Amino acid sequence: MSIDKDTAARVAKLARIRVEEDALPALAEEFNNILTFIEQLGEVDVEGVEPMTSVTPQKLKRRADEVTAGGHPEAVLKNAPDAREGFFAVPKVVE
């Protein structure tokens, strides 16, 4: 897949990033470099390789999966700018 100047402009618009017209060819080239790198990653043989969470071996901390009351709602809401009836109150954004 190849990214042209028009596609780079569309991606910039969707990402809400202002890119000057003269910078679009360089942006398209950067996108193409990224896609080339992704294609190279697809060629790596990962058969038998275990998934990792880190480059250093670590055991993840586990806890019992138990339903609780949630702890202390008063402490959670203490720093909220507006809390009502035990909930965070937020401004209405959809009419």
UniProtKB/TrEMBL annotation:
<keyword id="KW-0436">Ligase</keyword>
<protein>
    <recommendedName>
        <fullName>Aspartyl/glutamyl-tRNA(Asn/Gln) amidotransferase subunit C</fullName>
        <ecNumber>6.3.5.-</ecNumber>
    </recommendedName>
</protein>
<comment type="function">
    <text>Allows the formation of correctly charged Asn-tRNA(Asn) or Gln-tRNA(Gln) through the transamidation of misacylated Asp-tRNA(Asn) or Glu-tRNA(Gln) in organisms which lack either or both of asparaginyl-tRNA or glutaminyl-tRNA synthetases. The reaction takes place in the presence of glutamine and ATP through an activated phospho-Asp-tRNA(Asn) or phospho-Glu-tRNA(Gln).</text>
</comment>
<dbReference type="GO" id="GO:0006412">
    <property type="term" value="P:translation"/>
</dbReference>
<dbReference type="Pfam" id="PF02686">
    <property type="entry name" value="GatC"/>
</dbReference>
<dbReference type="GO" id="GO:0016740">
    <property type="term" value="F:transferase activity"/>
</dbReference>
<dbReference type="GO" id="GO:0005524">
    <property type="term" value="F:ATP binding"/>
</dbReference>
<keyword id="KW-0067">ATP-binding</keyword>
<keyword id="KW-0648">Protein biosynthesis</keyword>
<dbReference type="GO" id="GO:0070681">
    <property type="term" value="P:glutaminyl-tRNAGln biosynthesis via transamidation"/>
</dbReference>
<comment type="similarity">
    <text>Belongs to the GatC family.</text>
</comment>
<comment type="subunit">
    <text>Heterotrimer of A, B and C subunits.</text>
</comment>
<keyword id="KW-0547">Nucleotide-binding</keyword>
<keyword id="KW-0808">Transferase</keyword>
<dbReference type="InterPro" id="IPR003837">
    <property type="entry name" value="GatC"/>
</dbReference>
<dbReference type="GO" id="GO:0050566">
    <property type="term" value="F:asparaginyl-tRNA synthase (glutamine-hydrolyzing) activity"/>
</dbReference>
<dbReference type="GO" id="GO:0050567">
    <property type="term" value="F:glutaminyl-tRNA synthase (glutamine-hydrolyzing) activity"/>
</dbReference>
<dbReference type="InterPro" id="IPR036113">
    <property type="entry name" value="Asp/Glu-ADT_sf_sub_c"/>
</dbReference>
<dbReference type="GO" id="GO:0006450">
    <property type="term" value="P:regulation of translational fidelity"/>
</dbReference>
